[in-house]
Amino acid sequence: MLITGVGGTDFYPSSNSVSETVVVTVLVVCGALMWAYVLAKLCDVATNSDPGLTAFRQTVDALNELIRSYQVPTAMAQRLREYAHQQREQQLRQYAADRTIPILSTALQVELVMHCHRHWLDAVWFLRSMEEICLVRIAMAVGHRTLAPGEVTPMRHLYVVSRGLVLFGGKVLSYGASYGDDVILSDERYFLPYLARAMSYADIRFLSREELLTIVEAFPQSYRALRRAQILLATRRHIIREVRLMREGEFAAREAAREADGLGEEGSSSATYAPTFLDKMSADNRRKHTSAWMAARLEESAELRGSLAGARPRDEHSSFRQGPSKGASGRSLKRTSWVQDPSQVDAAQAMEAAVTERVEGLRQEMRESIGSLQADVRSVHEAIAGLAQLVRGHADTSNPVGDG
User: Fold this and answer.
1) For residues 198 and 165, is the Cβ–Cβ distance under 8 A?
2) Mean pLDDT by 10 residues, the chain (404 residues)
3) Which residues contact 186 (CB under 8 A, 6 or more apart)?
4) What is the CATH number of the domain that holds 112?
5) Could you tell me if 70 and 133 lie in one domain?
6) Which residues have CB under 8 Å from 58's CB, separation 6+?
7) 85 is in which domain, residue-wise?
8) Among residues 59, 58, 52, 55, which one has the least CA distance to residue 83?
């Protein structure tokens, strides 16, 4: 009676009055129904006030059930639970976005998505010149993932760090940083040879090459912007690669391999070989610019200096002019007397002059080769600047994105 809100006193309906009994019974039933309704509302509010958190808790419960069913070791179970709790904020945001964005109008979706994702879209350099609607499609297509410490991300994807620290190419990347711009290239020679490794628990956004190209192809202006970015990146990577090969002295080895395969610059008609920018330099200049050639010249100079030191004639005060002398054992040592012949002295002096002239010639040749190399490097920089200006001026190129 107290719970239903009626009674609780010493006054009860009279047993002789049917009407009083009916009224009290109706009041008790109505009070019980109202109390049950209030309790149901309170339970509903407590349960459904945060559906994202409820879904996360259900996921953790399922994980605990899996750990119990398969008797997972304690250490592994702790790591699994820790990883699940590290995903909490990311799962709550993703749950809210999946439930609310589809019900909005197109204009509101564009405005909301750009507000939520503008910070990392601006961090990707080749996305800055694309159309806004294309950026919205890209932002809605990205996936989300949480990396455990020490985990490595696969290649051929575009990544943006949302939380935590990631090590890539000797650099520590934090919130808002992006990596994996190789996703717009197709030639494996120009890929960076680095793998990203998480230094802590890190939330990342990722987008595959196939999804990016599929979205961009639907927007002509964004397609042209991506094509320009692809040409610039491929050109820069190609020039850096060729300069590195030139510095390491590998041009000579590549030229020998091409000549052995019949793909040299002379007499080759194969359609599978296309000369690059630096391959069109003359063979003499390439040989002069290799470290192997310079090392050979230095070795030749050292050999000539050694022969000069061994054949240098002694002057009139040297021991060759002093006749026999006593050795450490007291015995007479007979000196060589070949320099006493004037003709041999003249020949040695002539040889010294020739060697000196040859050494000076080698030095001059090396100085000229170094100067030529510096001039070629300057010309490469000028070519890069000119090519970049040319690409910006020809925005309407018709080459496909996948051929870069």
Assistant:
1) yes
2) 52 71 84 89 80 87 94 94 91 88 90 91 90 92 92 91 92 91 88 90 93 93 92 89 72 61 47 44 49 61 61 44 43 42 66 77 76 74 72 52 42
3) 402, 403, 404
4) 2.60.120.10
5) no
6) none
7) 51-91
8) 59
User: How far is it between the farthest Cα atoms of the chain?
Assistant: 163
80 CB-contact burial (10 Å; exposed 0-12 / middle 13-18 / buried 19+): middle
Number of domains in the chain: 3
Task: List CB contacts of 187: < 8 A, sequence separation 6 or more.
Answer: 234, 404
Instruction: Identify whether residues 129 and 190 lie together within a single domain.
Output: yes
Q: Do residues 127 and 91 lie in contact, with contact meaning Cβ atoms separated by under 8 Å?
A: no
Paired sense of beta strands 166-168 and 157-163, if any: unpaired
Distance CA 381, CA 52 (A): 55
C-alpha to C-alpha distance for 142 and 159, rounded to whole angstroms = 9
Q: What is the bridge-based pairing of β-strands 166-168 and 171-173? A: antiparallel
| Beta pairing class for 171-173 and 332-333 | unpaired
Tally the residues of the chain: 404
Closest CA to 158 of 188, 121, 190, 128: 121
| Whole-number Cα distances in Å, 401 to 44, 103, 183, 353 | 54, 34, 11, 64
Q: How far apart are CA 83 and CA 92, in angstroms?
A: 15
